[in-house]
Amino acid sequence: MKIIKFKTKNKFKYKRKVIIKDLILNIFVGIHKFEKRKKQRVRFNIEILTNPLIEPSNKDLSSILNYEEIIKKINSLVKKRHHELLEDLAENILDVIFKNKIVQKTSIKLEKLDIVRNTESVGIKVEKLRC
Predict the structure, then answer these.
(1) Side-chain half-sphere CA neighbours of 58 within 13 A
(2) pLDDT tens digits for 23-65?
(3) What pLDDT sits at residue 1?
């Protein structure tokens, strides 16, 4: 048996992703009159790709994206006002997330859980990439 050695410089490519999975909030969202009077359950699934060239450090928390802070900001955003459309809500969340300079790409999936009979959910998915 012959062993082949590859010449490498131990370089790796990384993808770092922050995941917020199945966050369910009762919020005011929708264009119908009944949606403006009663909160409804919305499921949030968010994936945030961060700059892989920035090495995470517990001594410098600006090197990471804090998922607790993102969730707090989403809670604050949905409490401030009624959103007519899920698309509008998604754009507002994207604006908050992209304020952090280490964010490169974000995917958001928002689903209304109780709005259409005979479905588990209906909703949207939006992706945004920093150029």
Answers:
(1) 0
(2) 999 999 999 999 999 999 999 999 999 998 888 878 888 888 9
(3) 58
Domains of the chain with CATH codes:
16-129 (3.30.1130.10)
pTM of the model: 0.86
DSSP designation for 8: -
User: Residue 48: how many CB atoms within 10 A of its CB?
Assistant: 23
Rg (CA), the chain: 19
Sequence-distant (6+) residues with CB within 8 A of 47 are 17, 18, 19, 20, 106, 107
Tokens linked to 65: 């994206």
What the block records as the tokens of 4 is 């082949």
